[in-house]
Amino acid sequence: MLRTSSISRPTKLEDLLSSKEIARLDPLDLASRRVFFGKLKGERRSKKRGHSVEFADHRQYVSGDDIRHIDWNIFGRLDKLFLKLFLEEEDLSLHVVLDASASSDCGEPNKYLFMQRCAMALGYVGLVNLNRVACTIMSGVDADAADRTGKPVNEKAASSPIRGLRDLRGRRRVHDLARFLCATTPGGTLSFRAAAERIALSRRGKGVMIIFSDFFFKDGYEDGLRLLSGHGYDLILVQVLSPQELEPPIKGDLRLKDIEDADTAEVTISAPLLKRYQANLAAYCNKLREFAHRRDMALLTVKSDTPVDLLVADQLRRLGVLK
Amino acid sequence: MNWSSISFISWPLALGVAAVAVPALILLYLLKLRRRDMEISTTLLWKKAVQDLQANAPLQRLRKNILLLLQLLVLAALIFALAEPVMKSASFTGTKHVILIDRSASMATLDASDNPNRRETRLEAAKRQAIEMIESLREPGLIAKATNAVGDEAMVIAFDNVSDVRQSFTSDKQKLRAAVESITQSDAPTSMAEAMRLAKAHAPKRLHVENNQTQVIEGLSAGAPITIHLFSDGRVPDADAAKPSPEDSFVFHRIGSEKSGNVGITSVRAQRSYENPNALSFFVGLQNSDPAERTVDVELVVEGSVAAIKQVTMPGATKPVTDGGPGPAAPLPSTTESNTGANAPTPSDQQKLTPDLNPGVGGVVFNVEREDALLAEIRLRAPTGSGGDLDAFPTDDRVYVNAGPAKKLRVAIVTNGSLFLSSALAGLPLAELKTIAPAEFNAQVEKGAMPSADVIILDGVLPPAGNVGPAAGLPAGRFLILNAVPQPKSAGPQSPAPITDKGTSGNATIVDWQRTHPALRNVGLDSVFIAESREVEVRPGSTAVSLARTERGPAIIELASGATRALIVPFDIGATNWPLDVSFVVFLASSIDYLGGESLAGSTDTPQMGSTISERLPAGATDIRLIAPGETTESTLTPLPDGSVVFGPVRRAGVYRLSWKGPPAPGDLAEGLRTTRRVPANLLDAPESVVASRSQIALASRLVNAAGSDAFKGDQKLWPWLLLACAAMLMIEWYVYNKKTHL
After folding, report:
1. Contact A264 B43 (CB under 8 A)
2. How many domains, chain A?
3. Is B738's Cβ below 8 Å from some Cβ in A?
4. CB contact, 8 Å: B465 with chain A?
5. How far apart are CA B180 and CA B134, in angstroms?
6. Which CATH architecture best describes the domain B415-597?
7. Given pLDDT bands bounded at 50, 70 and 90, which one contains residue A168?
8. Nearest residue of B to residue A280, measured between CA atoms
9. How far apart are CA A50 and CA B162, in angstroms?
10. Average model confidence (pLDDT) for chain B?
11. Are the beta carbons of B741 and A218 separated by less than 8 Å?
């Protein structure tokens, strides 16, 4: 809830995932609640008949079929032309989206660091199993960035709500993903709808999309999620909350300042107010869950102090994202 | 609680503070709090929560704010405390109070406390109540103090049969308290009239200004009406002489119990038998003011050892016959609050003062055979075996009385033969009566040897001039001189002779004499006719005093100078009808007793409490000191020119010890170089011995009922209670705040 007082940003893969965690992730593979067509040959069975070694079915030959697939043994016995069909194996597209607005840079442990580590873990599992992995950062627009850093900001980069890395495949791209994740720092105000629109427009193919965010968007999460849902994406929402957001450790007469838009709320912390806050938070989460279910999305609400390997190997696995 | 009786001393101050503090407090609530800034991830949920709890409109913000309500209450309590609210007692009307404290004998009664284990005299209770009353006097408020204004003022007067102002009008409670605490018990009877006069005298007089001339109007006091507080048991015989001004209040704080009965000694006398002087009788008069019959043991203690005990039973006190009984005949307006004193009495106010019971009386006589002078103590005790105290008033349970020695006087007559004298003196119980011829007397005197007699009667003769003392004209001794006038030498033009003989004149009758003089007591001289009187001039202020007068001048003269004392009858008794009158024999006997008896120590008459005691000491007494009863310090006395000492007024009953360097008179105790005489002083006052306190007191103008016990509560300060309420509300506020912000 509060801005993390001192944070050591990760700089390399080892900062995001320890070797022990990597060892626990190795046996896992991505799964999808739905079966999508892949783009490249992968290690995933496809609905399509293809060219793998696994036999699937026979069918009668129609003109135009590749005669290489005719089962000559059957033709010899029955004097009819049958084609031999094989299962096709394809890759799976995994798209990890992180909310890098200033509100993510809060909490103890830091919510964004938690998201980075989760994204790295999922990306690792995807890359190791020869899936296509994309990663998108929804970064906030910081109007004061130029003033703060003193450097001119690339206008395009500053105005673009997303930054991405796409079409990663294979184990050797793990470090690329780690570098990309480490290179981002959260900040600024995020317009979730704009970012979702950009993601929806720029995506290719189908697959599993996992969005890490706290979903505290002043302009609402509904429009953004609506844009992302459908179009063959298996959408999984991971709502990351810090423990302090669940039980605020504050008291006294305060002027609460929104870290993103500098909006203020004057409060005198009292027991009824805290109760009211917690009730509001529960209602907000419930509303998000209801929305997600209605759109056939999966929602997982986690605290930022949850161990990453537990989340990935247990909770996401139960959700059917990993196997 | 009567709200109308609450007043505020410093209400302008409180009003000012309230005008500032209350709006300030409300403003503080309306103003925004100075809050701590804190950055959080999102205000989304907080805003919603705050919106639910907080309304934005200022008035709505105040709504249901229990903290503000409590703080306003705390502030209100503080402001009210600042206004110094006092709850006024209805009896406190004036700003000037006169505190009269009765210290008379009956105030020593031990019945003022309800607690039987803690006995308290009425005076102690009166002083305690008076101090309570002083504490309750209104003090100037905070503002008034700053402007040197004064609060209620009071003066303190203590009275028995005399009154003294212990403290004049002041608002200094410390001084008033000290004045009340300095009042000590006295055994004197009660008289309030003087105290009332003193109270009136100290009140500021009303002034009348006309043509720039200021005139004091007697009988009217200026300023606010005075409230007179009488702390007494109501045993004030002369209350009807006290006349407070109509506008003044009179509050009677009754002390003591109405049911206190008392047995006391009201009279005592020691008398020797005329025929047998060794037989000494003590006559003791007793009084019982208890309605029940009482039996007491009367003890006679002679010189420290019990000589006799007699049991006496006295009837109980009875209701007096209403017609002509004591108490005012005319109904008086009855007031407990004196504000109504000036109003016309309503029929319900009219009531009679309940009369006292007539006490039962009794007496006892002790007969002892004692020759020498003695000091006897007579005391009352509860009957043997009954245990406990006799009554609550111990002062009149013990009296002291002196009895002179059983002494007969020796008398010598120097005469040429007087039938009247010798026959009159023959009947008197004298130790010795000898007749000396004038020539023989003169010879003895010239030799310097006076006849050995206590009293020498000179019938028409005078001692020879050569041996005559310079001032008195007589040698040292006691003389009854008939038909002659001693001619003392003039000591010079500055001190002319006290008596001048102007020779015989015509007939005369005695027109006036001192009936109280011991020699003339019980003597009637109005029938005496003097055929040939003698004109004598007595110089005023000299050692000679005229005891009886004819129309031509002094007829009987007392001359006292140093060791010489003489009664002079200048005319020839043979030329009067006096010897044929019984008064002549009585005069002879009284004057011989007086002249000879003055050498006897201690008269049997006991002085009244509150009066002075005069004792004649033997010639040559110096360094005279006095120890009062119950005291250890001696006071030094100076004798008067006639050899007597006067002290007093005596306030305590008991034995006063006079001691001096010099010869003892018969009956005095010689202790080494010093001689001691014991002078008893007793209460012996029948009205004072009736100790049941009265619930009403009849003043000249009104009948005042005893005020309730809360009459002296007076102004009760309320600010401590307000501060207490303030503290309680602060605690509630603290609890509410904690409960509200408890996480």
Report:
1. yes
2. 2
3. no
4. no
5. 10
6. 3-Layer(aba) Sandwich (3.40)
7. confident
8. B45
9. 142
10. 79
11. no
